[in-house]
Amino acid sequence: MDNSIVGVWSQPVANVVERGAVRKFADAIGDPNLLYRDEEYARGTRFGRMIAPPTFCRTFDFGTIEGLDIAQEGLIHGEQSFHFERPIYVGEELWCSECLTDTYTRSGGSGKMTFLIFEQKGETKDGELVFTSRANVIRKEGADA
Amino acid sequence: MNHSLSVGMEVPPLHKGPVTHIDLVKYSGASGDFNPIHTVESFAIEAGLDGVIAHGMLTMAYVGQMLTDFAGVEADLVDFRVRFRAMVRPGDTVVCRGVVTAVNEDGSGSLVTLQVFAETQRQETAVKGTATLRYR
Which of B29, B69, B83 minimises the CB distance to A78? Predict the structure, then answer.
């Protein structure tokens, strides 16, 4: 793989945290939490407004890393982490971007494995950092040994 | 600050499932992850799996639900990380568990660190990780 793309951030993309999308996501994971679906209830809590489930931010569009060309097939999600400066608010707009921060290859009994470490971040229009996340993705090649 | 939390305390477990094919279709739609290994049986078999498997992120979301249920409206989830291990398949039930491993005070409240995991009815660990809640 072309290593020159390591460290290059995508152009940030605006994502509106849509109420319907949050509700559908909460339904899909079977989470009845009223903070995700009842505006009046949420307004009465210390959050003051509806929020999104923590893993919802994995669904954002993080833009395209220029020059990154990885086949989606055969990718294994190895690890995932999130760090939140505060909850994600329903209705807000977050500018999200992504970077391949590291990649390395290991050879083992089951063939060659390429590890890809992606980091993402979401900021408000004013540059307030709201969350960062990291995904470790593994691609197995020649795993038929 | 929440005085009732101490090291060794267990989070109320969250029981999810049995996971259905429809759950995986719904999660694909809601998340935008349309990798067919989660929804198309023939594709999953072709890929060398015994059949479709759940999205790792769905299991992580279950653990997230356990954490946010535990946090209620008093605490914020600030850190949440997992490693994906055993696969979850349609028909599986998943139980999410957590235990408090540290309670630290700082200027703005207390930080509660937990070890979290989700296991299937086969007693296989599907995800394992850590989380931190901040009580202000």
Answer: B83
